Amino acid sequence: MEHEQDREALLRRYIELKEKAKQLEAEIESLKSNLFFTISQIQDETGETEVVFEDYVFTISYRKSYDYPPHIKKMEEKLKSLKKEAEASGEAILKSDSGYVVLKKVAGNRDL
Asked: Least CB-packed of 1, 19, 73, 84 within 10 Å?
């Protein structure tokens, strides 16, 4: 019985933490735009690229995203196809195979 209770406690705690993580992630997302603006303002005011607050340093980074021409997209699709063929034929060498837990709400609700 104790073993069953330990299992239930583990499953319950995992679900609780996943739900909290989802809520925290949503809150973080809601802060990002205002935070970016605030850090930019502080950088403009101070002339510094790093904003030190308590034991943390805020900086602004940029990530570029490109849309490639059709001939390059076609090459990417061909490469994906070749990789799948190599996997299926055994030509590709498996370098890792790791398991993980997937958590889904019952009745098709995929909130987690």
From this structure: 1
Nearest to 34 by CA among 64, 56, 58, 55: 58
Q: 43: which residues sit within 8 A by CB, 6+ positions away?
A: 49, 51, 60
Q: Would the pTM of this model clear 0.85, i.e. be above it?
A: no
| 73 touches 79 (CB < 8 A) | no
| CA atoms 86, 91, 95, 96: torsion sign | positive
51 sits in which H/E element: strand 51-53
Rounded Cα–Cα distance for residues 36 and 40 (Å) = 6
Per-residue tokens: 73 = 């997209």
Cα 63 to the chain's mean position, in Å? 15
Q: Which long-range contacts (CB under 8 A, 24 or more apart) does 41-48 make?
A: none
- Beta-bridge partners for 56: 53
Residue segments in the chain with a per-residue pLDDT below the cut of 50: none
CA distance 16 to 13: 5
Q: Where do the structural domains in the chain lie, given as residue ranges?
A: 2-68
